[in-house]
Amino acid sequence: MLRAALLACLAAPTLACETALVLAIDVSGSISGGDYLLQAGGLALALADPEVVEALVEGEVALTVVQWSGDGQQAVAIPWSRMLTRAAVTRFADNASAMPRAFKGSDTAVGQGVSFALAEFAAVPDCTRQVIDISGDGQENAGFTDARARSEAEAQGVTINAIAIEAAGAAFPITAYYQRWVITPGGFVVSARGVQDYGETLRLKLLRELADPIG
Q: Structure pTM?
């Protein structure tokens, strides 16, 4: 009986990581202390959504959170974690809600944030698809490497999607910036009208990302 059970375990298909997802969030000077708390709380709420939890676990998604700001200011806020169970997603959401802010009061080096996120994929080579989910409320004003970083991502087969955090009004300048300079071909931008809408926008964005066909 023991031998039969062992053979059954060996014969069972092994699920592979479908997506490695870097959540890269803006903590530059334009993000106030209150805005940062709304971002962290919104991230936690999005990850707690039942549909998001199901998609993460079903795809055995690998998640990490990166915070980025000005020139040379990028850091891993939450290391890679595999979403193998609902409890793993809950732990990750709790960590997101409580994570400290890495930088504040600095410029906006979008390209460097992307390049930093790209380097993190070396730790999850078994994942079929690699996605950077970058969010921000401003255009690049330091480093000036956004187009180059996008080219590097495209060359590595990495998809860049974005959340543009827009100010009140009819215009969408941050959305237009991300569309023109940051997302890769086939990537997409969604717009949040203020940080207070970040959580719901991220929830919908995650569902769209995780539902995308592989390859």
A: 0.90
